[in-house]
TrEMBL record:
Motif (GyrA-box): 526-532
Additional remarks: Few gyrases are as efficient as E.coli at forming negative supercoils. Not all organisms have 2 type II topoisomerases; in organisms with a single type II topoisomerase this enzyme also has to decatenate newly replicated chromosomes.
GO terms, biological process: DNA topological change; DNA-templated DNA replication
Residue numbers annotated as active site: Y124
Name by which UniProt lists this protein: DNA gyrase subunit A
UniProt feature coiled coil, ranges: 437-478
Major localisation: cytoplasm
Organism: Poseidonibacter parvus
Localization per record: Cytoplasm
Biased composition (Acidic residues): 860-871
Assembly behavior: Heterotetramer composed of ParC and ParE.
Catalytic activity as recorded in UniProt: ATP-dependent breakage, passage and rejoining of double-stranded DNA
C-alpha cells in the first residue's frame, strides 16, 4: 500500500476553491443555458430548441398538426437533453393564449386553462407553429445567425433566432436563475413596433419619449393597470411594480346589485379566486355577498358576485381588491442575457438591442444573397460564352477523352473557371433554343440589378434603415392587435401638493434637532414689549434655535453647520400644535450625528440667474449658482468646503437685483461690500474672506443680501434690544475689511444674536432660549442711528435670552363676537373676557393689559457716530 501512489502525481486541491469553481460553473450554466432569455430574440434555450426542431420537421402554420410527443422527442434527442416533462411544459406555455400575448405554437387539444387545469398528456395533443413563430424563424436559412454544436457535438443549432418581432417584450418572460431572476410582462405588438420605428430615426430616444408609443404592459388576460408610477420606474430603471385589477361591470337584479368580473389580473387562477371569495363571504370577513358563481364559457370570463339588498358595490369591491387576487402586484425586472452576460435593461436599451440585432440579421442576409447572386451570375457568364461559341464548344467536348479532359480544355480555351466549365458540361441541349437563350440573358440582367441593389444596402446606412422600417411596417400591419389591458391613474399618485392648501407655516427647529410646522395663525400678534406665548414644549436641556416662516408648497433647502445641503418640501414636515415638541430632523433628512441645521431657505425654482450665498462663523463667504442644487440626493450634497475650526452660520439666495452683501458679528461689527466682489464658485470650493475681526473672540452671527441702500436693517441683541437703521448708514467698503459698528453694546444689551431686513408689511418674530415666541409689528419699532443701542423689542425673563429672530407675514387676528356685538377674548387659562368694542379700535389692538408694556427709552442715548468710529 505504501507504493500504491509512488508513480502517480498527487495534486492538493482546496475543497473550498473546488466548490466555488464548481458552483460558479453550475450557476453560469443555469443563467446562460436554461433560466434567462436572450435579449435579442427573447427566448430561453428550451423555447428556441422547440421552435428549431419544428422548423426542422417543417411543421409550419400551413402544414398538418404533429403529435406533441414527436416534437418533444426530437427536442430532447437532438438539442435539449433534459426531462421530457420540462420540454412539454415549455411547449404548452408557448401555446397558451392566456400566458402569451402572441402565442408561438398553435395547439390542438387540451393545453390547460385559466382555471389552472393541466394540459393533456403529450401523446394526446398536437401542435404546429403559428404565423408569429414563422416571423421569428424567418431568414434562418440565410446565414443570418451563428450556429453552435449541440450537446453531443453531432449537430448544429442556432444560438439566437432572427426574429422580426421584439419577442422579449411582446410575450414577456419569467425565470429564476442563481442569484437573479427575470420577470418581463407582455406588451402590445402595435405599440412595440411603433416605438422601434421611432428609434430607427431617433436612436437616442429616452424612456419618456418611447412611452408616447408604449403605454405600458398589455397582458393577454386584460385587466386594468392601476397607476403609472411602476411603469415609469420599470422603463427608466429596469425595475418597477405595477398593480393589476380585474375588470368588472355592475348589473342590477331588482333592488340588488351584481358585480360581474369580465377579465382577471395576469396569472390569477380563476377557480381559486372564486373559492377564496366564497370563503371570505362565508366567514363574514367581507360583508354584503350573497352568492358567487362562475358563468364563464368559450366566449370569455364571467364571474358573478351577487350582493345583498343593502350592500354597496363600491365598498364590496374595495374589500375584494384588498383581500383577494382581484388586485395583485406584478414586479417587473427587465433582466436578460446579452453578450453572454445577464443585465438589467431599461426600455430604450432593450429596443436598441433588438434594433441592433435586426441590423445584423439584414446585413448577414444581404451578404448571403449577394454571394449567391454573384455565384449564379458567374455561372451565367460562362454559359453565355458557351452559347456564343457553341460550335467550338461542342467540337472540344466531342474531341475530349472524358469530362475532366473536356473541362480543362474549355477552361484553357475560353479562360473559364472550374465552376463555369462544369456548368457548360452540365448544360442541357434545350438551352440552345432561341427562347432559352433570351431567358438566360434576362436572368443575367436581373442578377446584375440585384447585385447592384444588395451592394447599395451594404454601403448605405439610410438604405439599411429603410429596409428595417419597411419590414417592421409590414409585420406591424400583419399582426395588428388592440390593447387589452387598460391603464388608469391611481389616486395615490396624484401630486400631493394638489391636495394640500398653500398657506403660511412657522417651521421651528430646536437645539437638539426637533422640527415641526405650525399654522401661523396659531400665534396672536402682540404689541412691542409683549411677553408672548409658548411656541414649543422643550426639555430642560433643549431650546428653540432656529425658526422659519414659509408656505406649505415651498421647497426648503436645509444647510447644516458642516456645509451639507438637503432638500425637503414644507408639507413633508409633520404639523404639530403650538406647544408640540416636533419630530427629530434625522427622521426626515439623513443628518449625521454631529450635524445641525443652520439655515432653512425656501425656493420655488432653481433658476441659473440666482445663486446661494454661504456665510461661515470665521467670516468666509461664498456664492454658488442655485442651479447646482436642483437635484439634491437623499443624503445631501457638499455645498462648501470648510476649515476644521469653521462652520456655516447662515445662507441666503441672491438674484440679479442683489447689490450688496452684509455680514454681522457677535461684538457689533458689520461690513457692507459689493456682491460682485464674490464671484460664483462650484460646490466643492472654500470661498473667500468676507470680514476681518477686530477681536479673536468675535464671530459671525448673521448676514444678509441687500438690493437697495434705502432698505432698513433691524439687529437685535441677547437682551431683546434692537433698532431700525438704514443700509446707507453702513459705509461701503472692500471685502475682507473690518467694517463699521452696527450696534452699541453693553451689559444691558448683551451681544448681537442676529438681524433682519425691515419690511413693514411683515411682522418680526423672536425666539428665546426657554421656548417663547413673540410677534411684533415692525411699524412699532422706532428708527435709530447705526452707533446706538436701540429700544427694548422683547422683554426677556431673568436667565432667558433671545436666540433667533425672523420675519413673518402679517395676519389679522381672528376675533369672536357675541350676540350683543361684544368681542370675546380668552386668557391663557381659558377664562372668558368680554371686551366692549371701542369705535375706531383696530382688532389687532384688542390685547389685555397684562400682555401690553410701554416701550422704555433708557437706551436711546445717541452719541456722535463719527466720533465713536474714530475711537
Amino acid at each position: 500500500m505504501e507504493n500504491l501512489f509512488e508513480n502517480q502525481d498527487i495534486i492538493d486541491i482546496n475543497i473550498e476553491d473546488s466548490v466555488k469553481a464548481s458552483y460558479l460553473d453550475y450557476s453560469m450554466s443555469v443563467i446562460i443555458g436554461r433560466a434567462l432569455p436572450d435579449a435579442r430574440d427573447g427566448l430561453k434555450p428550451v423555447h428556441r430548441r422547440i421552435l428549431y426542431a419544428m422548423h426542422d420537421l417543417n411543421i409550419t402554420s400551413k402544414s398538418a398538426y404533429k403529435k406533441s410527443a414527436r416534437i418533444v422527442g426530437d427536442v430532447i434527442g437532438k438539442y435539449h437533453p433534459h426531462g421530457d416533462n420540462s420540454v412539454y411544459d415549455a411547449l404548452v406555455r408557448l401555446a397558451q393564449d392566456f400566458s402569451m400575448r402572441a402565442p408561438l405554437i398553435d395547439g390542438q387539444g387540451n393545453f390547460g386553462s385559466v382555471d389552472g387545469d393541466n394540459a393533456a398528456a403529450m401523446r394526446y395533443t398536437e401542435a404546429r407553429m403559428t404565423k408569429v413563430a414563422e416571423e421569428v424563424m424567418r431568414d434562418l436559412d440565410k446565414d443570418t445567425v451563428n450556429f453552435t454544436a449541440n450537446y453531443d457535438d453531432t449537430m448544429k443549432e442556432p444560438s439566437v433566432l432572427p426574429t422580426r418581432l421584439p419577442t422579449l417584450l411582446l410575450n414577456g418572460s419569467e425565470g429564476i436563475a442563481v442569484g437573479m431572476a427575470t420577470k418581463i410582462p407582455p406588451h402590445n405588438s402595435n405599440e412595440l413596433l411603433a416605438a422601434v420605428l421611432h428609434m430607427v430615426d431617433n436612436p437616442e430616444a429616452t424612456a419618456d419619449e418611447l412611452m408616447q408609443f408604449i403605454k405600458g404592459p398589455d397582458f393577454p388576460t386584460g385587466g386594468t393597470i392601476f397607476g403609472r408610477r411602476g411603469i415609469i420606474d420599470a422603463y427608466n430603471t429596469g425595475r418597477g411594480r405595477v398593480r393589476i385589477r380585474a375588470k368588472h361591470h355592475i348589473e342590477t337584479k331588482g333592488k340588488k346589485e351584481i358585480i360581474i368580473l369580465d377579465e382577471l389580473p395576469y396569472q390569477v387562477n380563476k377557480s381559486r379566486l372564486i373559492e377564496q371569495i366564497a370563503n371570505l363571504a362565508k366567514d363574514k370577513q367581507i360583508e354584503g355577498i350573497s352568492e358567487v358563481r362562475d358563468e364563464s364559457d368559450r366566449d370569455g370570463i364571467r364571474v358573478v358576485i351577487e350582493l345583498k339588498k343593502d350592500a354597496m358595490s363600491e365598498i364590496v369591491l374595495n374589500n375584494l381588491y384588498k383581500s383577494t387576487p382581484m388586485e395583485n402586484t406584478f414586479g417587473i425586472i427587465l433582466l436578460a442575457v446579452h453578450n453572454k452576460e445577464p443585465k438589467v435593461f431599461t426600455l430604450p436599451e432593450l429596443l436598441t438591442v433588438f434594433l441592433s440585432h435586426r441590423k445584423t440579421v439584414i446585413i448577414r442576409r444581404t451578404i448571403f444573397e449577394l454571394e449567391k447572386a454573384k455565384a449564379r451570375a458567374h455561372i451565367l457568364e460562362g454559359l453565355k460564352i458557351a452559347l456564343d461559341n457553341i460550335d467550338e464548344v461542342v467540337k472540344i467536348i466531342k474531341a475530349s477523352a472524358n469530362d475532366a479532359d473536356a473541362r480543362e480544355k474549355l477552361q484553357e480555351r475560353f479562360s473559364l473557371s472550374h465552376i463555369q466549365s462544369q456548368a457548360i458540361l452540365d448544360m442541357r441541349l434545350g438551352r440552345l433554343t432561341g427562347l432559352q437563350r433570351d431567358k438566360l440573358e434576362a436572368e443575367y440582367q436581373e442578377l446584375l440589378a440585384l447585385i447592384e441593389y444588395l451592394e447599395l444596402i451594404l454601403k448605405s446606412e439610410d438604405r439599411l434603415n429603410e429596409i428595417i422600417r419597411e419590414e417592421l411596417e409590414e409585420v406591424k400591419e400583419r399582426f395588428a392587435s388592440d390593447r387589452r389591458t387598460d391603464i388608469e391613474d391611481s389616486y395615490d399618485e396624484i401630486d400631493i401638493e394638489d391636495l394640500i392648501p398653500n398657506e403660511p407655516m412657522v417651521v421651528t427647529i430646536t437645539h437638539n434637532g426637533y422640527v415641526k410646522r405650525v399654522p401661523i395663525k396659531s400665534y396672536e400678534k402682540q404689541r412691542r414689549g409683549g411677553k408672548g406665548k409658548t411656541a414649543v414644549t422643550t426639555h430642560d436641556d433643549d431650546f428653540i434655535e432656529k425658526f422659519f416662516v414659509s408656505n406649505t408648497h415651498d421647497t426648503l433647502m436645509f444647510v447644516t453647520n458642516m456645509g451639507q445641503l438637503y432638500w425637503l418640501k414644507v408639507y413633508k414636515i409633520p404639523e404639530g400644535s403650538r406647544t408640540a415638541k416636533g419630530k427629530a430632523v434625522v427622521n426626515l433628512i439623513n443628518l449625521r450625528d454631529d450635524e445641525k441645521i443652520m439655515a432653512i431657505i425656501p425656493t420655488s425654482d432653481f433658476d441659473e440667474s440666482k445663486s446661494l450665498a454661504f456665510f461661515t462663523r470665521n467670516g468666509v463667504v461664498k456664492r454658488t449658482s442655485l442651479s447646482e442644487f436642483s437635484n439634491i440626493r437623499s443624503n445631501g450634497v457638499r455645498a462648501i468646503v470648510l476649515d476644521d475650526t469653521d462652520e456655516i452660520v447662515t445662507a441666503k439666495i441672491t438674484d440679479p437685483s442683489s447689490q450688496f452683501l452684509m455680514i454681522f458679528t457677535s461684538l457689533g461689527q458689520c461690513i457692507r461690500f459689493d456682491i460682485e466682489k464674490t464671484r460664483e464658485q462650484g460646490r466643492s470650493t472654500r470661498g473667500v474672506r468676507g470680514i476681518k475681526f477686530k477681536h479673536d473672540s468675535d464671530f459671525v452671527v448673521d448676514a444678509d443680501v441687500i438690493t437697495d441702500e434705502s432698505q432698513e436693517l433691524l439687529p437685535i441683541s441677547e437682551k431683546g434690544i434692537g433698532k431700525r437703521t438704514t443700509v446707507s448708514e453702513y459705509r461701503l467698503t472692500n471685502r475682507a475689511g473690518s467694517g463699521v459698528i452696527s450696534m452699541k453694546l453693553s451689559n444691558k444689551t448683551g451681544n448681537v444674536v442676529g438681524e433682519v431686513l425691515v419690511d413693514e408689511t411683515q411682522d418680526l418674530m423672536a425666539l428665546t432660549s426657554i421656548g417663547k415666541m413673540i410677534r411684533v409689528d415692525m411699524q412699532t419699532i422706532r428708527k435709530a442711528g447705526r452707533n446706538t443701542s436701540g429700544v427694548i423689542i422683547v422683554n426677556v425673563d431673568k436667565g432667558d435670552k433671545v436666540v433667533s429672530i425672523a420675519k413673518c407675514p402679517k395676519e389679522a387676528e381672528e376675533i369672536e363676537v357675541d350676540e350683543n356685538g361684544n368681542v370675546i377674548r380668552y386668557t391663557e387659562d381659558g377664562e372668558v373676557v368680554v371686551v366692549e368694542p371701542v369705535e375706531g379700535l383696530n382688532p389687532v389692538d384688542l390685547n389685555t393689559e397684562s400682555n401690553v408694556q410701554e416701550t422704555p427709552s433708557l437706551l436711546d442715548n445717541e452719541e456722535n457716530e463719527e466720533n465713536n468710529e474714530e475711537k
